[in-house]
Structures are given as C-alpha cells and as structure tokens.
C-alpha cells in the first residue's frame, strides 16, 4: 500500500495500492493541514503531523482507533516524521533540532541534536518489513520486471501487478508491452 496526505480542498490521509487503484480515505474529519506521515509497519499504524491543529495523531491502517499523541504550539514548527521502536522522530524547523517523542506518552519530548536547515528525517534499519519470497514484479527470464516492458507496479497484493509505460509510450493490448 501507498499512504499519503493531502490538504487541498478537503484535508485527509489516504491509502491506495501501489498502482494507484483502490484509493481510500482513512482520515477525513478533524484534520486540516497534515504535513508529514510515518508508518509503523509492524503494528500497522499511520502517524501524521497536523501543523494547523498543532497535533500528532495516529490511526490504524483502516482509519480506526484514532488517538492524539501530543498537541500544542510546538507542533507548528515540526517537519518530517519517522517511527522507530517506541519513539517518533521529527525535526523542529524553529530550533533546528531533532526531537524524540514517546509515542505512548506524548508528554515525553526530548531534543537530541541540532542540525542546520534539516527538513526531513528518516530511520534506516536493516529489516523494516517482512520479506516476501516472491512477488508479481520480480524479473522474468528475459529480465523484464513482472513481464512488463517498462514499469511494474504491485497491485492489490504482492501476487498482483499492473504494467505501466514511461512518458511518451502507451500500453499495448497485451497489458505488458509499451509502444
């Protein structure tokens, strides 16, 4: 799945398949300006910052079990969001510091370090997702990803895929080749 925020005409947090299909709103109320999003891949939670409502909130992948992690004026200066173990990590663009927020006790906020002009934060770990033995976009014997001549996108599961073409090409009637 692909998760993303939108604060255009109607602010929301959404998810869709990697090919863009099955687009679903998972948060569409009491949300104004969601600017950063992070996933807990193990427990299947979506965290986001709302700088207008000055809050950090969480829901499960279906948009249920919504909770506010922390709220207050300090949120309006936050950008970027990452999850690792029991903490959320973010950047305070006002104080130029990396913050660690306990995601179970949002009042426990610690400044870890100062950085010049940081706007985003990522946590890299050796194994963020469970491995899949095989998937629909693996290279076929000729080296084409999922049998697609240009681009292979996973669809509703790791066993399904959608082929797409690079700009200037159209997908052939076989659903795999680009012309």
From TrEMBL:
GO biological process: canonical Wnt signaling pathway
MF GO annotations: Wnt receptor activity; Wnt-protein binding
InterPro entries the UniProt entry points to: 6-blade_b-propeller_TolB-like (IPR011042), Cueball_EGF_LRP_Nidogen (IPR050778), LDLR_classB_rpt (IPR000033)
Classification via Gene3D superfamilies: TolB, C-terminal domain
Per-repeat ranges for LDL-receptor class B: 1-43
Name by which UniProt lists this protein: LRP1B protein
GO cellular component: plasma membrane
Gene this protein is translated from: Lrp1b_0
